[in-house]
Design a protein that fits this description.
By secondary structure, the chain is of the alpha/beta class. About 35% of the residues lie in helices and about 15% in strands. The protein has helices at about 20-30, 70-90, 105-115, 120-130, 150-160, 185-195, and strands spanning about 10-15, 45-50, 55-60, 95-100, 135-140, 170-175. It has a six-stranded mixed beta sheet with strand order 2-3-1-4-5-6, sandwiched between helices. The longest helix has 17 residues, at about 70-90. It is globular and about 45 Å long. It starts with 10 loop residues before the first strand and ends in a 10-residue tail after the last helix.
Length: about 200
């Protein structure tokens, strides 16, 4: 389903539900104007941003979950394609960034859990870790959150990480992408790149 991946051996991917701010984060990292929209599901193919002189790219994968106006089978096909992309390119992915909407993620996760379902966000977080990918959870839209610590601790709890969130700063990164407030995320990504001795990629973050 996803075609035309650039031939790059190093990659950072952005994944998550629709409308959580992945494309805004992509624009913040690259300085490149990426299509964004208020309507969920605007991005239905990966957006790759690569630098011609460097064997590296950042990829914004399509959002999954509910999308207004998108049929259920199409939503499921996109989710399956995202999973396959991650599996196929796991060796190239230096860091995976799972983006959550800090204002609604806990409520959405709890709603699905109460129905006896495995929430998409939890499922994807577990899947990324099973693939052995260094994973950072970018908890976006923190400017709309009343109690930052309470929200981040709840996110940790739902993802199976023992609170308080401050002990997971290589994994949990509170950001407000729309305002360019992404320091904790870039710090976490840079930390993972250093651990992999990929200092030549630090320039992109």
């Amino acid at each position: 389903m996803f075609e035309d991946r650039p031939d790059r051996s190093d990659e950072v991917v952005l994944v998550g539900r629709s409308n959580v701010g992945k494309s805004t984060l992509m624009r913040e990292f690259t300085g490149h104007d990426v299509e964004t929209g208020r309507r969920p599901g605007v991005t239905q193919q990966p957006t790759h941003y690569d630098w011609a002189s460097v064997d590296f790219m950042i990829t914004d994968l399509p959002g999954f979950g509910f999308m207004a106006g998108v049929e259920a089978d199409r939503r499921e096909a996109i989710k399956t394609a995202v999973i396959r992309y991650l599996e196929t390119n796991a060796e190239a992915i230096r860091v995976a960034v799972l983006v959550l909407d800090g204002n609604s993620a806990v409520e959405i996760i709890d709603r699905h859990t109460d129905r006896g379902e495995l929430p998409h966000d939890v499922e994807l977080f577990q899947f990324l870790r099973e693939l052995g990918l260094p994973t950072v959870v970018a908890v976006n839209k923190m400017d709309k959150v009343d109690d930052k610590d309470e929200t981040l601790n709840a996110v940790c709890d739902r993802l199976g990480l023992y609170p308080p969130w401050q002990q997971w700063q290589d994994t949990i990164a509170p950001v407000t992408a729309k305002r360019g407030s992404v320091g904790p995320l870039t710090d976490a990504i840079r930390g993972h790149l250093r651990e992999q001795q990929r200092d030549e990629l630090l320039q992109f973050f």
